[in-house]
Amino acid sequence: MKVLAVTGYKPMELNIFKPDDQRVSFVKAAIEKRLIGFIEEGLEWVLLSGQMGVELWAGEVLLDLKERYDIKLAIIPPFENQESRWPEAIQQVYQELTMNADFYQPLYKGDYKGAYQFKAKNKWLVDKSDACLILLDDEYPGSNRFFHEEASWTEEEYPIFVITPSDLEDIVEELRMTDSDYWE
């Protein structure tokens, strides 16, 4: 696998409303753990559409990993100015990621025109990647279910790697055990 698409929930779908919410660090740790494994097996590119939440967090993780690994980041939003209605702090993260990405190109010129742009984005990401990593709880699918459906419908072998709520619980426990205060 050389190219991986990464996606997941938007922050509000996880009841996360502040950028400094501690749960973001757990999600990032889970993403980092999986990405390092893929990179060490030969992953070269990560594709994101740049949506807020899991994708932006994955982008931040990738910028850190680029300091240690030879990995490239592509951001392919469905249209230009997708961040225009986001909170300012999230817009700044998006701008930093797009400036530091190895490749950035919106699929459609201009602003949002219709839901077809999101469908096209999902199809493009699946078509251009060898596999995907998705944060998903089967019991509570959010907007990420549309990407998951597109990935599931592909006729070619397309591995879907999932970060589950159980994986997040394991990461929380791992991080808790590395905290020296935990053992006192």
From TrEMBL:
<protein>
    <submittedName>
        <fullName>Phage-like protein YoqJ</fullName>
    </submittedName>
</protein>
<dbReference type="Pfam" id="PF06908">
    <property type="entry name" value="YpsA"/>
</dbReference>
<dbReference type="InterPro" id="IPR010697">
    <property type="entry name" value="YspA"/>
</dbReference>
